[in-house]
Design brief:
Blueprint (H helix, E strand, L loop, with lengths): L1 H26 L10 E4 L9 H6 L4 E8 L3 E2 L3 H10 L3 E7 L6 H11 L10 E4 L11 H19 L4 E4 L1 H7 L1 H4 L4 E4 L14 E10 L9 E8 L2 H11 L9 E9 L4 E5 L12 H11 L6 E11 L5 E2 L8 H14 L4 E5 L6 E5 H4 L13
Parallel strand pairs: 1-2, 2-4, 4-5, 5-6, 6-7, 7-8, 12-14
Antiparallel strand pairs: 1-9, 2-3, 8-9, 10-11, 10-12, 12-13, 14-15
Length: 373
């Protein structure tokens, strides 16, 4: 009897561990202190979504399947596409590429169905193998076909596309080497490393349960995606190489992520009178404002380092914006109605510290205090 009791207790313990593991997995997401911008993507023919509830639970953006091959249009796309801005979420469209259908005809199908929208995120091309298509073209032919598809879609959207590439597809075709476009990689829980270039976005979980589906009390499973802050750090480093800093010999670069996924950069510009010098963050934000895009900033990356004899920024210690720049950033943040994530990096190395602006500048005075926003 004692043995049976022990076996029963053991099974109960295993069940509790299993249930605890399931709960952890279905509620896990990439750490928000590092990946401040996270969102979801929906499959074809998704069930109804309560977008405002999802937004309240931290989703910043959503990608929706629009078209598949030449002949499939998702019937829920248009309604969800129109609902996302109303819920305060950014939106992006996905085309599921077919190896069995002509590239140009697929591009035409996408361009006809998906409207050009200035606020849209880069179009994502899903590159993976599917049960309904056994074709495996030669790599050279596939690269040529995809190059044509990309050119046609980018002409329509006026933005570079993003490649959502599965690991088997990448292993077969090494497509991220051939096409120089941002990569959306896939890997449940573990950061993927199979692409030829660093990924811009990571599909981190396809089993996370988030409120926003129906029935509401159960929540719904969504694929959760995180945007890599290192992409902004890299852009800021590129900008810092153009810094005009002959007096301090300290180069700073800033990069702004905009609503549509584009990036605006700036570098510090010093002046012989010292007081007229401009910080990198100010240059970048003023550039965005001059383009009428002050309200569209969703994240900022900043790096800095002492310049070596050749004028190249160096150092591995992350830097953060000065007090003046924090106030300038706050202007953009309040005008856009966001508590902006600020990714602070160094000229070299992988160290990145992420803060919300409210942490860097608590109780900030800004346009909202003057009734402007």
């Amino acid at each position: 009897m004692a043995i049976l009791w022990k076996i029963g207790a053991g099974l109960l313990a295993l069940g509790a561990i299993s249930a605890g593991g399931r709960h952890w997995a279905t509620h896990w997401q990439p750490p928000t202190e590092r990946y401040a911008l996270q969102g979801i993507d929906l499959p074809e023919n998704p069930p109804a979504v309560e977008w405002r509830t999802l937004r309240a639970n931290g989703a910043d953006f959503a990608y929706l399947v629009a078209t598949s091959g030449t002949d499939r249009r998702d019937p829920s796309f248009e309604g969800n596409w129109d609902a996302l801005p109303e819920a305060g979420m950014r939106r992006g469209a996905v085309h599921i590429y077919s190896l069995c259908q002509p590239a140009a005809a697929q591009a035409d199908a996408f361009n006809i169905f998906v409207p050009r929208a200035g606020d849209a995120l880069p179009t994502a091309i899903d590159l993976s193998f599917h049960d309904d298509c056994a074709a495996r073209p030669e790599r050279a032919q596939l690269v040529a076909d995809l190059t044509r598809f990309v050119a046609m879609v980018e002409t329509h959207t006026r933005k570079p596309v993003m490649l959502r590439v599965s690991k088997p597809f990448e292993r077969e075709y090494d497509i991220t080497t051939a096409l120089d476009r941002p990569v959306w990689a896939i890997g449940n829980l573990l950061k993927p490393d199979y692409a030829a270039r660093p990924w811009r976005m990571w599909r981190a979980s396809d089993f996370r349960r988030v409120e926003g589906g129906r029935p509401r009390k159960l929540g719904r499973r969504y694929t959760m995606n995180a945007i890599d802050p290192h992409a902004l750090i890299t852009a800021a480093r590129d900008a810092a190489r153009n810094a005009h800093a002959p007096y301090s010999r300290f180069a700073v670069g800033a990069a702004l992520l905009m609503e549509d996924g584009s990036v605006i950069t700036g570098a510090n510009f010093e002046n012989a009178s010292y007081g007229l010098s401009l910080c990198a963050e100010t240059v970048a934000i003023a550039t965005a404002s001059a383009a009428g895009r002050l309200r569209e900033i969703v994240a900022i990356g900043v790096i800095g380092g002492a310049m070596d004899a050749a004028g190249v920024p160096t150092g591995t210690t992350p830097v953060s914006p000065c007090g003046r720049c924090r106030q300038v950033i706050n202007e953009a943040a309040q005008m856009g109605g966001r508590d902006l994530p600020v990714h602070c990096g160094a000229a070299e190395g992988d160290a990145v510290r992420t803060y919300r602006l409210s942490e860097l500048l608590p109780d900030a005075f800004g346009p909202a205090d003057l009734g402007i926003g």
